[in-house]
Design a protein that fits this description.
- The complex is a heterodimer of chains A (329) and B (326).
- Chain A is mostly helical and 329 residues long.
- Chain A contains 14 helices and 2 strands.
- Chain A has helices at residues 2-29, 33-37, 44-54, 60-72, 86-121, 126-140, 143-157, 182-215, 218-225, 230-259, 262-267, 273-282, 286-314, 316-328, and strands at residues 170-172, 175-177.
- The radius of gyration of chain A is 24 Å and the shape is globular.
- The two termini of chain A are 14 Å apart.
- In chain B, the strands form 2 sheets. Chain B has an 8-stranded mixed β-sheet with strand order 6-7-8-3-9-10-12-11, with helices on both faces.
- In chain B, helix 4 (110-121) crosses helix 5 and helix 5 packs across helix 7.
- The two termini of chain B are 27 Å apart.
- The chains are: A mainly alpha (329), B alpha/beta (326).
- Chain A binds chain B through residues 217-219, 221-230, 232, 236-237, 240-241, 314-317, 320, and chain B through 56, 58, 82, 86-91, 94-95, 97-99, 102-109, 116-117, 120-121, 152, 154-155, 165, 168-169.
């Protein structure tokens, strides 16, 4: 187990190294940053001095090493557009995106799994058919459309929920949360639903397909023949066997939710990283784009690592293979 | 005469499909006495496993019991609601399935599965159930059971897994075990061990067994009585010695002829021509008539019923006529 974690950690570091290389390359391809930083009346000497000061005259590998070193400590330089530390901007924006992503992931998980189990068990029930049809809509309607429809119904027509923003927030040291105020929670409902709907339908359909598969197996038949209760058979034996693929997909989806909350954040004017990233692209704000790239890659790598470790918790067959490899090796 | 433990009366299992109703088990009647081993033998699709599944109440939908009764100690069990039938499963009727490699849930240790089953049916505490589980594993011949109880199914060989499955089927001392091809998936060298184990344990616990198999060798070895099934019907049923040595039904005669006898040198085995009809194409009259070498006119028009011939019962017009003529 430990050897496995170490191996995966090394792989993660390699992945991050290549992502950093890509992010670094962006700086080189998008022209001279000095031109974008200074005014027209700046003299050539002053420009040269700035280049030296910024380290742009150092050899490339030195610059890259500096970039990686800074990134590792969370420093991504200064935003061209805002003339502020990128790390500060991310620190302000990240809680909003993470709260939105995690709430919508939890929503899709805690609604999607039970719906998947239900439709798997009662394949021909009318409620299952309703779920399956509704999930088709969820999977095929684009996110922005659902968001706009929700805004139209609940914000414009009914006036129950705010149409944009995050509501009131509470400062918890470095973390600015919207989860502790009524207006913050109200503001969260529609974006979280919009962002989570696709994942919900995906998880529901996945759990259903896996349940149908598992319910046909001999060990489920044998579990019934042993007289176990329905509850023990369906949830203890069947559902647990569907978990490995569900964990995989949920993990990957959580990464995508964080990375691609952009559209939802734009529709609801959610003050998260996605909105910041979109503005950065419009203004060719390379430091922010590079920081965003590295951060999202980091989330994906971290989530994948956690997912891999969860496999070990769920499936004893994997545990033993490693133990065996050790015993013989 | 003892009261039978299990009685199946005129059981009929049907599968309603889009292309009409298929009858997998047709008018099957049999009984099993306490502690007795009844072998059920027949080709694939003869309805042996379906009969077993019907008894334990686990027919796969859309399969259903269309007619007949199943009585356990005189009590009807074929029409019980799911929850009551669940209490009978495992507790009074245990089951062993064909493939030990897939009968155990790979995500739970064998101990967890044993303890779960024991606690479902008894009031035992976890510690008591665990002790009982260790006992059971040692009874079925798993070495070092105190240690192996925490192992997972994939850490056992096929034969060992079938031993675990037997322990699971026996764990609350059911009165009857339905063993559906318990050795078919196993290595030949292991088969005899498993059959001997099953036989010994059932004798010790006084458990009756319905042993479903297509292996006449296993039947001859383990069964007290044997039922030969063909196309969802019973062709012949009687004491195993009787059926093996003096088969009455032409199908049974053919079956016995197809078993190689080692000391008879290289004599050709007899073979029954053709194959068992599909469920959609069962002929009228006796279902065996297309392959039978001794058909008479009646075989094609009327279906023979089981009649007593000596110690056996046979469904064949030859024997029915003898009886009516006499």
């Amino acid at each position: 187990m430990l050897a496995f974690i170490v191996r995966r950690l090394i792989q993660s570091v390699v992945v991050m190294f290549f992502v950093a290389m890509l992010a670094f390359a962006m700086f080189r391809f998008v022209g001279d940053p000095v031109h974008q930083m200074v005014g027209i009346e700046t003299s050539l000497e002053e420009r040269e001095a700035l280049r030296v000061k910024l380290g742009l005259r150092d050899p490339i590998y030195v610059q890259f090493a500096r970039f990686v070193g800074n990134a590792a400590t969370g420093e991504f330089g200064i935003s061209y557009q805002h003339q502020r530390l990128v790390s500060d901007m991310i620190r302000e924006r990240m809680p909003a995106t993470l709260e939105l992503s995690i709430i919508s992931a939890l929503f899709s998980l805690f609604v999607g799994v039970p719906m998947g189990v239900y439709t798997g068990l009662h394949r021909h029930g009318w409620l299952s058919k309703v779920f399956m049809t509704a999930s088709l809509i969820g999977i095929s309607l684009p996110t922005f459309l659902i968001g706009i429809l929700l805004i139209f119904v609940f914000a414009v027509l009914l006036g129950w929920l705010p149409s944009f923003g995050r509501g009131e927030v509470v400062e918890l040291g470095f973390w600015r949360t919207g989860l502790l105020t009524v207006s913050g929670l109200k503001a969260l409902i529609m974006p979280a639903f919009t962002l989570g709907l696709f994942q919900l339908t995906l998880i529901m359909r996945l759990v259903r397909a896996e349940m149908l598969e598992v319910l046909r197996t001999d060990y489920i038949k044998f579990a019934r023949a042993r007289g176990l209760t329905n509850r023990a058979v369906n949830f203890g034996h069947a559902l647990k066997n569907t978990l490995v693929p569900v964990i995989t997909i949920t993990g990957l989806q959580l990464g995508s939710i964080i990375a691609f909350a952009i559209i939802t954040e734009t529709v609801f004017q959610w003050p998260g990283m996605g909105l910041m990233f979109l503005q950065a692209i419009q203004n060719v704000d390379i430091p922010i784009m590079a920081a965003y790239l590295i951060m999202i890659a980091f989330f994906f790598v971290a989530i994948n690592l956690i997912v891999d470790m969860l496999y070990y918790v769920v499936d004893p067959r994997l545990r033993v293979d490693v133990a065996k490899a050790h015993g013989h090796g | 005469m003892v009261n039978p433990l299990l009685e199946v009366k005129n059981l009929r299992v049907e599968f309603p499909t889009r292309r009409g109703v298929l009858t997998a088990v047709d008018d099957v009647s049999l009984h099993i006495n306490p502690g007795e081993v009844l072998g059920v033998v027949g080709e694939s699709g003869a309805g042996k496993s379906m009969t077993g599944a019907a008894i334990i109440g686990l027919l796969e939908p859309p399969g259903q019991i269309a007619a007949g009764e199943i009585l356990l100690e005189g009590r009807r069990i074929d029409n019980l609601p799911y929850e009551q039938m669940r209490r009978i499963r495992g507790r009074e009727i245990g089951a062993i399935f064909q493939d030990p490699l897939t009968s155990l849930n790979p995500l739970y240790s064998v101990g967890q599965q044993l303890i779960e089953t024991i606690q479902t049916h008894t009031e035992m505490t976890y510690a008591q159930a665990r002790n009982r589980a260790v006992e059971l594993l040692s009874e079925v011949g798993i070495p070092a059971p105190e240690r192996r109880i925490d192992s997972y199914p994939h850490q056992f060989s096929g034969g060992m897994r079938q031993r675990v499955v037997i322990a699971l089927a026996l764990c609350v001392n059911p009165k009857l075990i339905i063993a559906d091809e318990p050795t078919t998936a196993l290595d030949v060298s292991i088969q005899a061990q498993i059959i001997a184990l099953l036989k010994r344990l059932c004798r010790e616990h006084g458990t009756a067994v319905m042993l479903v198999t297509h292996d006449m060798g296993v039947i001859a070895e383990a069964a007290d009585r044997v039922a030969v099934m063909y196309s969802g019907r019973i062709a012949e049923i009687g004491p195993v010695r009787q059926v093996v040595q003096q088969p009455k039904h032409p199908y049974t005669v053919g079956l016995m002829g197809s078993i190689p006898i080692i000391d008879q040198g290289d004599e050709r085995l007899t073979q029954i021509d053709g194959a068992m009809p599909r469920l959609t194409e069962i002929p009228s009259g006796c279902a065996f008539n297309p392959r039978c070498t001794q058909t008479i006119e009646r075989c094609f028009t009327e279906r023979p019923n089981l009649v007593q011939v000596g110690q056996s019962s046979v469904s064949c017009w030859h024997h029915d006529r003898e009886k009516t003529d006499a």
